[in-house]
Amino acid sequence: MTDDNPPVVIEGKTFGPTDTVVLDGHHFIRCTFNGCEIAFSGGDFTHEACTFGKCDLVFYGAAHRTRLVLEWCGYTITSPFGENPETKFPQ
Q1: Contact 11, 30 (CB under 8 A)
Q2: DSSP label of 4
Q3: Contacts for 27 with CB less than 8 Å, ≥ 6 apart
Q4: CB atoms within 10 A of CB 13
Q5: Helix (H), strand (E), coil (C) string for 47-84
Q6: 37 and 55 in contact (C-beta within 8 Å)?
């Protein structure tokens, strides 16, 4: 993110099962992500003091292509929470 294009600040929000949250271009402060869908396409984002629980992660664009290359090279991507989150790969 640049000074010309500052991130959108989202503070103190709770995201649940009916929400899709786009990470790119946002700065999350003290937010809760619980059972929501998280969409990421490789853009800049930041977070501080947020909590995460069992969200689905959806990769688009550059992030999707990066994941495909990593899998092609034999890497396995796992959740830091000790279980694999459901991931979706839009075509």
Answers
A1: yes
A2: T
A3: 7, 8, 9, 10, 45, 46, 47, 48
A4: 14
A5: EECCEEECCEEEECHHHHHHHHHHHHCCCCCCCCCCCC
A6: yes
Strand 51-53 to strand 37-40: parallel, antiparallel, or no bridges (unpaired)?
A: unpaired
Query: What DSSP element (H or E) covers 28?
Result: strand 26-29
Q: Which amino acid is at 73?
A: C
Residues 37 and 15: their CA atoms lie apart, in Å, by 9
Q: Could you tell me the two tokens for 72?
A: 């092609």
pLDDT digits (tens, 9 = 90+) for 9-67: 999 999 999 999 999 999 999 999 999 999 999 999 999 999 998 888 888 999 989 98
Note whether 43 and 64 are within 8 A (CB). Answer: no
Q: Rounded to two decimals, what is the model's pTM?
A: 0.77
User: Positive or negative CA dihedral for 8, 16, 85, 12?
Assistant: positive
- DSSP 8-class letter at 90: -
